[in-house]
Structure formats: structure tokens, C-alpha cells
């Protein structure tokens, strides 16, 4: 039985390996671009596995101490690529979140406070990567996911 009923929020998510990356940021911050970059890294061998969970809106739910992410049904399997529109994409119905990436984060720092590297979402503590405004998030996220950081 879930600990919370869950809620739908403005974010995107990609399953990478066994855990999902939840990507938060304002409209136009690059959430969909990061989603597509991670999926491409999965296809090219830069990551062992990467598949869309949801783009633009996600449903978050705490269950048994884990944060679950899924796609709201109307947008399941759809991803937006600027200049091309909305496209169908293979997707996972649900995943456990292992990392939150905050795009254009005001608290991003060269030498971050360890407390800034965690966040609480739906009552669950999750690892966090704050990305500074104007910074390309893909190399940072890939480095972290590949264990180089």
C-alpha cells in the first residue's frame, strides 16, 4: 500500500540501469533535451540501459521508503524534441528514482555543500545533482552515472 497517493508534477524521468533520473526545471530549461541525451547514451553504449519513463509531467509516489515515478496516461510514451515536435518513444511504466537533477539550480556551486546533494521528495531522501544555469547537464549526469564523480 503506498505511503502517499502521489501527485503529478512538471518534470521528466529516464530509467538508467535499475534507477530513474528525475529531471526538474522550468519550462525551456532543457529537461527533454537531457532525456533524449540520456536515451542516446543508452543506445550508443555510453550507458548500459536508458529508457524514457515520462517527459514534461510525471507522477510521483512514495511507497515503502522509495520514490516511484511514472507517466500520466495521456502522455505515456511521448517525448518532445524542440523543432521536431512530439514523438513516440519506448518507455517504462514505472521506476524507482535514484537521482534528482535540478536544472538551472540557484544553489549549484563548484564545491557543493553535501546537504545540497540530497533532496526530499514525497518524504523520501534522494541523491541530487544541482546544475548551474547555462551549464550543459549531460556531461555532468553521465559522469555521475558512470561513477566518475
From TrEMBL:
Record keywords, A-Z: Kinase, Transferase
Source organism superkingdom: Bacteria
Stretches assigned to the HPr kinase/phosphorylase C-terminal domain: 7-88
Stored InterPro entries: Hpr_kin/Pase_C (IPR011104), P-loop_NTPase (IPR027417)
Molecular-function annotations in GO: ATP binding; phosphorelay sensor kinase activity
Gene Ontology biological process: regulation of carbohydrate metabolic process
Keyword hit for tRNA processing: no
Keyword Kinase (UniProt): yes
Protein name per its UniProtKB record: Serine kinase
Organism listed in the record: Phreatobacter stygius
